[in-house]
Amino acid sequence: MSSNSLVATSDLNLPIAHMRSVFHADEVKRKLIKLQASGGEREHESLRATYERMLERGPQRFAVKPSGVPRMEPLYDLLPNFTEVLDDVKRHVALSQDSRDALEVTPMLLLGPPGVGKTHFARQLAELLGTGMSLVPMSSMTAGWLLSGSSSQWKGAKPGKVFEALVDGQYANPVIVVDEIDKASADAQYDPLGALYSLLEHDTAQRFVDEFAEVAVDASQVIWITTANDERGIPEPIRNRMNVYEIEAPTPEAARRIASHLYRTIRDEHDWGRHFADEPSDDVLDQLATLAPREMRRALMTGFGNARLDQRDAIGADDLPRAGGNKSRMGFLQ
Predict the structure, then answer these.
(1) Across residues 313-334, what is the average pLDDT?
(2) Are 245 and 111 in contact (CB under 8 A)?
(3) What is the pLDDT of residues 35-51, one digit of tens each?
(4) Predicted confidence band at 141 (pLDDT cuts at 50, 70, 90)?
């Protein structure tokens, strides 16, 4: 599956792109003709529509990467507990700069307690690299076909998440986050992680066959991020295909920096933010630092709401919900 240059290299470290084929159109045409010849178009209407959509959109997708090593200092400041992961990403970006090579990032497993920012990191990485992101929550997976698709012979069958990301998306190298991989249902009739054995290997991922469409797609450029709380729930052959990073909870000082950044981000994103001070007070930061990063945003929204009800331009510590469930008076956004 081929690629050709689309956008010239920029000196500003902006994303550049090549076009890359993620499937062979001739193969799809053959499948569609065979389906039509069999007279099973009505029976397999969804499959026919899938083939027609593939041909209408064509096989070319953007394969994007930064044109140089981007400035990552803001991310190091925002995600201080992900320093090791960011260092590795920076090395991969450096290898691909000033070349026609696509950006390759070794699949990664982020291990750590709930709420330390693993999924938030994935979103920030997708934004940094200029590609899209798809989230696959494994805790809700009850069948193995959610990644690889289900046979079109089954009622209600449809393509898997990988096929959707590549065929229905814009990018040949999206970030796909397999969230809480250690919580994949052990009661599933089919192994929910089975598809990852080939998807996490570059060579076999080049011709990954979705069971619904039965057409090979090139998933070799996908940037895989998996998250887990406990690695014991992950089969060893899958762990061995990834770089494993232990993500600790941020230190109190790092948590204060994260809270300060979130305060400014929320304030700047909303028109009502102009009513509030540019920076939060020290006592507000101290209290926010006791929360997990995922809880900080909710706490800040509550604080903004409570302060606005009192027509104040600053959040006080009493406006925030207390850690451990001892909540302060409730704002309109809890």
Answers:
(1) 65
(2) yes
(3) 888 876 666 888 999 99
(4) low
Q: What CA–CA distance (Å, rounded) separates 40 from 27?
A: 18
Beta partners for residue 227, in sequence order: 110
Provide the pairing of β-strand 108-111 with 243-246: parallel
User: What's the CA gap between 31 and 14, in Å, rounded?
Assistant: 39
Are 267 and 276 in contact, with CB atoms under 8 Å apart?
yes
CA distance 267 to 270: 6
Helix (H) or strand (E) holding 20: strand 15-21
Rg (CA), the chain: 23
Q: Name the residue among 133, 134, 128 with its Cα closest to residue 67.
A: 128
| Model pLDDT for residues 264-275, shown as the tens digit of each residue | 989 999 999 999
Write the DSSP symbol of residue 195. T
* Rounded-to-integer distance, Cα 169 and Cα 53, Å: 12
Residues 6+ apart with CB under 8 A from 40: none
Return d(Cα 320, Cα 138) in angstroms, integer: 32
Distances (CA, A) of 196 to 139, 208, 226, 246: 16, 10, 11, 21
Q: How far apart are CA 264 and CA 284, in angstroms?
A: 13
Is 0.70 topped by the overall pTM?
yes
CB 122 within 8 A of CB 175: yes
